[in-house]
Design a protein that fits this description.
Oligomer: single chain
Strand order of the largest sheet: 1-9-8-7-4-2-3
Structural class: alpha/beta
Order of helices and strands: HHEHEHEEEEEEEHHHHEEHEH
Largest sheet: 7 strands, mixed
Radius of gyration: 21 Å
Bound molecules: pyridoxal-5'-phosphate
Distance between the termini: 7 Å
Shape: globular
Helix content: 25-40%
Length: 370
């Protein structure tokens, strides 16, 4: 049996999760100056919320009339809030994996709505929105984190009266997007934006704001799910209930970091460089292949790589953790594939990704030889 020498490179930071993700240590050091332990109605926290909202508005270059709302509960809460506060009668969904399925199943089962029109993809492929002329809401995930499928942002033709609602949780902050034509672009900050879980943000078009105000005025909506209420509080740089100030400060620091480096264009180039190195590696290695076969739909931020059945991917991951401190590269649990899934978010350093590839190559060779 051949002894393969360990790679000489080690990651400085071995966190490659697809959410939550790596938080940079510089972000942590800004916490000492954050207004922790202060009322969210008081000025220092409102200034922080204001800074986050302005920073995000600049980062995303919001089209005229668009506004940013925020609240507690993460993207999962937004699915429920949209079901109560935005969908009028019927939603249509493109489902590419577990996250887009959760929202589709929610609107489909809501007793106050008509059954949803749902088109489901074969796992690992892109699914365009279904034809649904009588739907008032068209929904899909920009980056389906469970499979690593990126859907083109502008693939849907909305008819008059239809709103396009995009779950951008794991890609917002990593792709250079142009939001004109998109009515709701929502996300949590613990993925591409490298902060922590628990908050949600939604970028709303004028048409979405008008719809939300009309729907919330016309039916009973639980206050936590009332987007009109959330927007009214957000305009005052407040939230309906107490937010995590730690999280807001982590996010504020990361948004500033992204903007100082060149914003979304810089982030996209950086993430494509990281994930591109993984896809190139997978295409050239006999025991690895990109799970998403169509290159155009491969996520630039969540790289899913299938490992040959002759090798147990669980064992490979365990060795990477034990010997190189590389963590959180398991596939989405329900997908159940012999796979690794690597978060290639803006906070990840190329050196660390190169170390991951070197160790992966080593572990595969070692396992194939055993
Ligand atoms: C992680 C994720 C969610 C859920 O986000 P939470 O903040 O945990 O509620 C929703 N959609 C996508 C695409 C995700 O990646």
């Amino acid at each position: 049996m051949v002894e393969y020498a360990h790679p000489s490179i080690l990651p400085h930071d071995g966190r490659f999760g697809s959410g939550p993700t790596k938080i940079r240590s510089e972000q942590l050091s800004t916490l000492a100056a954050a207004p922790l332990g202060t009322s969210h109605r008081a000025q220092p926290v409102r200034s922080l919320v204001g800074s986050v909202r302005e920073g995000l508005a600049e980062l995303f270059a919001l089209p005229d009339g668009y506004e940013i709302a925020l609240g507690n509960g993460g993207a999962s809460l937004v699915w429920e809030a949209l079901t109560f506060s935005l969908v009028q009668k019927r939603a249509a969904h493109a489902v590419c994996g577990e996250f887009s399925a959760k929202f589709a199943d929610l609107t489909d089962g809501a007793p106050h709505l008509d059954p949803s029109v749902i088109a489901r993809a074969e796992v690992g492929t892109f699914q365009p929105l279904p034809e649904a002329p009588d739907a008032d809401t068209l929904a899909f995930a920009h980056n389906e984190t469970s499979t690593g499928v990126l859907s083109p942002l502008h693939h849907a033709e909305a008819a008059p009266g239809q709103l396009v609602v995009v779950d951008a949780t794991s890609v917002a902050g990593a792709l250079d997007v142009h939001l004109a034509g998109i009515d709701v672009y929502y996300f949590s900050p613990q993925k591409a934006l490298g902060a922590d879980g628990g908050l949600w943000f939604a970028i709303l078009s004028p048409a979405a704001i008008e719809r939300i105000e009309a729907v919330c005025a016309s039916r009973w909506v639980p206050p936590m799910l009332d987007l009109a209420r959330a927007l009214a509080a957000s305009r005052k740089n407040q939230t309906y209930n107490t937010p995590s100030i730690v999280n807001l400060a982590l996010l504020d620091s990361q948004v500033r970091w992204l903007r100082e480096r060149g914003g979304l264009a810089w982030a996209e180039e950086r993430c494509r460089n990281l994930s591109g190195a993984l896809y190139t590696f997978a295409e050239s290695h006999p025991l690895v292949r990109p799970f998403v076969t169509e290159p155009a739909y491969r996520s630039p931020v969540v790289a899913t790589l299938d490992i040959d059945e002759s090798i147990n991917a669980d064992d490979v991951r365990a060795r990477l953790t034990e010997l190189a401190g590389i963590v959180d590269i398991a596939p989405y649990r329900k997908l159940g594939r012999n796979q690794i899934r690597v978060g290639c978010f803006p906070a990840v350093e190329r050196h660390d990704l190169d170390a991951l590839i070197a160790w992966l190559e080593w572990a595969l060779e070692d396992a194939a030889d055993a």
